[in-house]
Design a protein that fits this description.
Shape: elongated
Strand content: over 45%
Largest sheet: 23 strands, parallel
Number of strands: 62
Radius of gyration: 40 Å
Distance between the termini: 121 Å
Structural class: mainly beta
Length: 626
């Protein structure tokens, strides 16, 4: 029941001056009809005759039910006044906001109602959610999601609060956004032990038909029991996805991506569970992860995934996930400006072993692979799966207990491209290449590798069957951050089956071997130009008639009593100088001496030689006799 009040004025047929119509006859009709409306003089209690008279001041006042009416006011000698489509609404009623207009600012803005404007998004509290971490809000949140799914999308708002859910939340529609008031303010708290925290997938053909345009921002999903849900958030074949300012916390599984494309994640955090109540997770949980990327449940491959400004970390020192980022298949994944920590296995595991999958174009740029893990990066595969373009640019590796990067013998990959960054205090080898070809390591710092102290363990190991490797512009230093590894070698090569290895323009600060060739019986087709060492290299032995010199270096001290006519360490264009520590004889052989006459050296003499591969000869370029 609503009240209508107005003051009515009119003119006469002979005067244009407005005069108040006092004691005029007022008739109210149901709009668009000749039916007299039911009127009251108060709020629905005392009936009012229709027609009735206006007051002596021209006031027209009545009460009527919500609805639309026409008012006709007449008085002898005055023109009749008709007011059409008077709408009476109770603004406090559920439909009241539909009677209040709303006009956005700006030229060209379109008018609407307050109700229509407010329905552009819904709040979970509109459906009864409380957000006190005690009330079960599962049904209310699901109802809010379903309401916008029914109208082909919209936004669901989570005001600041802690929303308890006791079963999986399902999103099956397109164009849906979940948003809150911040990662630390709006949190869904998972109190169940099955399925997922939130599952996003098509309802009719899940995994086959995609869901379009899912986004989430400014909120958190957090486990509140020692849950074994498969993941906090599972995106099963989502096309166009945007996640920003979101954290997944205290989980068994963080984010699971199955298929889909064009995903964008920014300011994204995932953390492992805590050892303290209510979760009480201690040690490494088998199968747990921060992020796992795989095909959809029906086999669709994911591609074009972008992560910017991410942090995957442990909550305390004794809660570790099994593997940090696990990528089983993808065609294009870019990770930039991130941190991965608190992993019992590999910080990054590229594991493409299924012939129905592929793994191509993986880029990690400026990512810190932090301590605790066995491997910084582990790459595995099978002979039936070929993948390529694994790129680590400006990445840092700190104290992996075994290897910084392990290229498994099963990985059928064209290679890995490592540019810049540093690798320090590895337990064993820094980078191990057991398979693949066309790998490049450029501009990286290796410091105090081989913390386990095993003999013949190097910063880089190139094993049998690995070809076409480039190691350039790197520094190998046995000491860094006050820690020394005196047994750290530079590069170790299984020469018997490896060829086309280029090691150039590097700096070695090592007591152990700079380059350790394991099989000198095989002709060395590799090249080692322009490297610098801070240690004085010494040639101390002869194999057959050949002087054995290190592969790296330009000036060598030759021990007294060594007689030879050839030298090891041959590659095109190499130039070396021999400085003799005592009496030795260099004979004409594959070493070509000036005048073809043997050089009988004594302490302090030097002999400079250059290698020319077409004739397989060392040629004398100069000598100095003391």
């Amino acid at each position: 029941m609503q009240r209508y009040v107005n003051f009515i004025a009119s003119t006469t047929s002979t005067s244009s001056t407005l005069m108040v119509l006092s004691n005029a006859t007022c008739t109210v009709y149901v709009a668009g009809t000749s039916t007299a409306a039911t009127l009251y003089s108060d709020n629905g209690i005392t009936p009012l005759a229709n027609p009735f008279l206006s007051s002596s001041t021209g006031q027209v006042a009545f009460y009527a039910a919500n609805g639309t009416y026409d008012l006709v006011v007449s008085k002898i000698g005055y023109l009749t006044v008709t007011i059409s489509a008077i709408e009476l609404d109770d603004l406090l009623a559920p439909s009241g906001s539909n009677s209040v207009g709303y006009l956005p600012a700006g030229t060209g803005a379109v008018a609407t109602t307050v109700q229509t404007k407010l329905r552009e998004s819904v709040s979970v509290k509109d459906f009864g959610a409380v957000g006190d971490d005690a009330t079960d809000d599962t049904a209310a949140i699901q109802a809010a999601i379903n309401s916008i799914s029914a109208v082909r999308g919209g936004s669901v708002y989570f005001p600041a609060g802690l929303y308890k859910v006791t079963s999986q939340l399902n999103i099956t529609g397109d164009n849906i956004t979940l948003f809150g008031d911040g990662q630390r303010s709006s949190a869904i708290r998972v109190y169940h032990n099955s399925g997922y925290g939130i599952l996003v997938q098509d309802s009719v053909n899940p995994g086959t038909d995609p869901v379009f345009n899912f986004s989430m921002r400014n909120m958190c999903i957090r486990a509140r029991i020692e849950t074994t849900v498969n993941a906090c958030l599972y995106l099963n074949n989502i096309l166009n996805c945007a996640i920003s300012n979101v954290s997944l916390e205290d989980h068994f599984g963080g984010l699971l991506i199955g298929g889909g494309n064009e995903h964008y994640y920014s300011n994204f955090m995932v953390s492992s569970a805590r050892t303290t109540a209510p979760v009480s997770w201690t040690g490494v949980k088998t199968g747990s992860f921060y992020l796992r990327i795989d095909q959809s449940s029906t086999g669709d491959l994911p591609y074009n995934l972008y992560f910017v400004n991410f942090n995957f970390q442990r909550n305390d020192s004794t809660s570790l996930v099994n593997n940090g980022v696990v990528i089983n298949c993808v065609d294009g994944a870019w990770f930039s400006n991130g941190h991965i920590q608190g992993v019992g296995g590999a910080n990054l595991w590229l594991n493409c072993i299924d012939s129905t999958k592929q793994l191509d174009a993986v880029f990690f740029n400026n990512v810190w692979f932090d301590s605790d893990s066995i491997y910084g990066v582990r790459i595995t595969g099978s002979s039936s799966v070929f993948f390529q373009q694994v790129n680590l640019i400006g990445c840092n590796f700190l104290r992996p207990s075994v290897n910084g990067i392990l290229f498994d013998s099963s990985a059928n990959c064209e290679g890995i491209n490592v540019v810049g960054g540093w690798m320090i205090q590895t337990g064993s080898y820094g980078i191990v290449l057991n398979s693949g070809s066309s790998s490049s390591i450029n501009g990286m710092f290796f410091g105090a590798c081989n913390q386990d102290g095993a003999a013949s363990t190097s910063a880089i190991a190139i094993n049998s069957g690995v070809d076409n490797v480039r190691i350039q512009n790197c520094e190998f230093n046995q000491t860094t951050h006050g820690v020394t590894s005196s047994l750290m070698q530079g590069v170790r090569i299984a020469n018997a089956a490896s060829e086309n290895i280029l090691i150039s323009n590097n700096a070695f600060k090592l007591d152990a071997a700079m380059v350790d060739i394991q099989d000198l019986s095989t002709s060395d087709t590799n090249a080692y130009p322009n490297n610098i060492t801070t240690k004085a290299a010494t040639a101390t032995s002869v194999a057959g008639s050949s002087l054995v010199i290190p592969e790296i270096g330009d000036v060598f001290s030759v021990s007294a009593g060594l007689n030879f006519s050839n030298m090891t360490g041959r590659w095109y264009g190499r130039q070396v100088t021999l400085r003799f520590l005592g009496a030795s004889t260099v004979s004409q052989g594959t070493i070509r001496l000036s005048g073809s006459v043997a050089f009988v050296a004594k302490a302090g003499d030097t002999l400079s030689l250059a290698y020319e591969s077409s004739g397989n000869f060392w040629y004398e370029t100069s000598r100095m006799v003391s």
